[in-house]
Amino acid sequence: MTVLRVTKEDVRRMAKVSCLQLTDEEVEAFSHQFSELLDKADEMLTLNTDHIEPTVNVLKQTKVLRDDRVRPSADQSDVLSNARETVDGQFKVPSVFE
Amino acid sequence: MSVLDLSLRELHNQLEAGDLTAEDLVDASLKRISEVDEQVKAFLLVDEAGARKRARALDESFAKSRHRELLSGIPAGIKDNISTQGMTTTCASRMLAEYKPIFNATVMDKLDEAGAVTVGKVNMDEFAMGSTTESSYFQKTHNPWQLDRVPGGSSGGSAAAVAAREVVFSLGSDTGGSIRQPAAYCGVVGLKPSYGRVSRFGLIALASSLDQIGPITRTVEDAAYVLQAIAGHDPQDATSAQTDVSDYVSALTGNVKDVTIAVPKEMFGEGVDSRIKEKVYEALRVLEGIGARWEEVSLPHLKYAIHVYYVIVPGEASSNLARFDGIRFGFRAEGADNLQELYEKTRSEGFGREVKRRITFGTMVLSADYYEKYYVKAQKVRTLIRRDFERIFDAYDVILGPTAPNVARKIGETVDPLTSYASDMCTIPANLAGLPAISVPCGTVDGLPVGMQLMGKPFDEATVLRVAHAYEQQTDHHRQKPAL
User: Fold this and answer.
1) pLDDT value at position B271?
2) pLDDT band at A57; cut points 50, 70, 90
3) Cβ–Cβ of B239/A15 closer than 8 Å?
4) Is 0.90 topped by the overall pTM?
5) For a Cys staple, B119 with which of B51, B81, B151, B222, CB 3.0–4.6 Å?
6) Is A75 strand, coil or helix?
7) Over pLDDT 70: what percentage of chain B?
8) Residue of A7, A9, A19 to mutate, testing the B interface (most B Cβ within 10 Å of its Cβ)
9) How many CA atoms lie within 13 A of B209 on its CB side?
10) What angle in degrees, to the nearest 10, is found between the helix axes of B353-366 and A8-17?
11) Listed residue (B259, B169, B165) closest to B468, CA to CA
């Protein structure tokens, strides 16, 4: 059996960092698919990109600034309207520390 | 012939002459939706009361002023990743099933100003990740041409709704082909504007360096009208370009005698169905027949575009989708004992499989072991691809090729995700280089529509529209409609 370059352990670790719980079946499938995706992506590695700037954004404008002026912001009750749990005008979350 | 077969200009003229009211037009749209959407399943939400109310208000204001804005009374469908204030915006995900934005996307404010009537929100692949609209949490949309086929994606609902004559136009979003490919599959026109041409404010992001909102319409002229309404700089979007918006409708002269077309051989490779190549070459000969000149060219780095894309998009998506944590908005899982568990359960239950796949892979390519080797490399190869295009555009006005390498496949046909990724090979390059690109119907294969794609220089939508329109005027593909 060939060892996959992205192991199930790798997938589990990345899922954990992404705050995702994957099923065993998903872990298995992703490990194959990610290995294959990297194999394909390896085709890029043959290209010489010395002295080539990475493209972060295609636009020529880089620094976009605006005047630091006070503007009306969203209403507090509107902002809270999509939350499942709120208390005293705040978002409510489960305890952070045990 | 139904009023819903008329072009936007014809509708506008009738509305302005008082021969048609916005209420009648919106009624016709709602009636058509009630007749066919059970089969097409393009709509996730139909705002019947809101649309009627809006149409009546537009008619009342017309009665006083005798003036209508260009899109006044025109019924539209909006992709469900575009924020509509007070109207659910789900991204076709369980995660946002009940989410009602408290603000409008800038394009929605602009459509409001232009008088358009939003009749509802349309289906898509979950968080725009996909090319068939099958990954929607809610329903599968059917291709109006053959109901057992996919409409394409991710803006499948947008394309199907226009093809089925449920609305006059729709808005979609395009990260790697998500406007153009479904437009091709459904036999309608889909325009992805240049990156920065249309504000992304309020578009729920997939990959921020690639996403663009654009119109899906029945004709090129309609696309020009809608683009005119939504284009322009927006201070709310730092990546919105401060570049002048030209008059797109008056650009449609029908004249292409001065136009030079580049035909990249890489877009006619072995992955493309030979019958599609034939249709696209036929279209090229039509343009040649009315005076355009063309030459075959090579874009040597084009073959890497798909690899670059499937590193950059997951990376950006992984970061963008980190905001869905179950706290401020969206789905929240039950039974979590602490905050970390709440995040994990919420995201695991709220996201579908393709979304989890891309987030996890994206996190991996951004992690220390892979970042330089793959992510930064992909960004550098993206520069090489952009340079290929710049070189071509020094000598040519537009680039012509197929929109998709195949016609719409059957719903539920199992396809390996990597094979499905490859179906974006013709559309991805325009996103990587930020180019405007349009898909125009150019015939059918086995009764299913085929799209021709035209790409232009950054911010030169006018030329892309002009060439597409000149071609369209020589053919009647855009007048064909599904039997539905």
Assistant:
1) 87
2) confident
3) no
4) yes
5) B51
6) coil
7) 100
8) A19
9) 23
10) 90
11) B259
Count of alpha carbons within 13 angstroms of residue B142, beta-carbon side? 14
Task: Tell me if residue B72 is catalytic.
Answer: no
Alpha carbon of B324: minimum distance to chain A alpha carbons (Å):
10
Query: Is residue B237 within 8 Å of residue B199, measured between CB atoms?
Result: yes
Query: Which residues on adjacent β-strands are paired with residue B399?
Result: B262, B455
Name residues whose C-beta falls within 8 Å of residue B157's C-beta, 6 or more positions apart in sequence: B42, B43, B44, B77, B79, B80, B122, B123, B124, B133, B141, B151, B170
Please confirm, yes or no, whether B79 is among the known catalytic residues.
yes
CA distance B190 to B210: 16
User: What interface predicted TM-score (ipTM) does this complex get?
Assistant: 0.95
Q: Residue B104: what residue type?
A: N
Say if residue B163's pLDDT is above 70: yes
**DSSP alpha helix (H) spans, B371-438:** 377-395, 417-422, 428-433
Residue in B315, B343, B329, B320 with CA at minimum distance from that of residue B127: B320
Count CB atoms within 10 A of the CB of residue B49.
8
**Residue B291 DSSP one-character state:** T
Written as one string, the DSSP assignment of B227-266 is HHHHBS--TT-TTS-------TTTT--S--TT-EEEEEGG
Using alpha carbons, select from B71, B88, B298, B103 the residue that is nearest to residue B201: B103
Nearest CA in chain B to A44: B304
Question: At B270, is the pLDDT very low, low, confident or very high (cuts 50, 70, 90)?
Answer: confident
Tell which phi-psi region holds residue B272, choosing left (phi > 0), alpha (psi between -120 and 50) or beta.
beta
Query: What's the rounded Cα separation, in Å, for the pair B453 and B442?
Result: 10
Is residue A2 scored above 70 in pLDDT? no
Per-residue model confidence as pLDDT tens digits over A15-49: 999 999 999 999 999 999 999 999 999 999 999 99
- pLDDT tens-digit map of B100-120: 999 999 999 999 999 999 999
At what angle are helices B8-17 and B220-230 packed, to 10 degrees?
A: 70
In this complex, the residue of A53, A57, A78 whose CB is nearest that of residue B102 is A78
CA B296 – CA B294 distance, rounded (Å) = 7
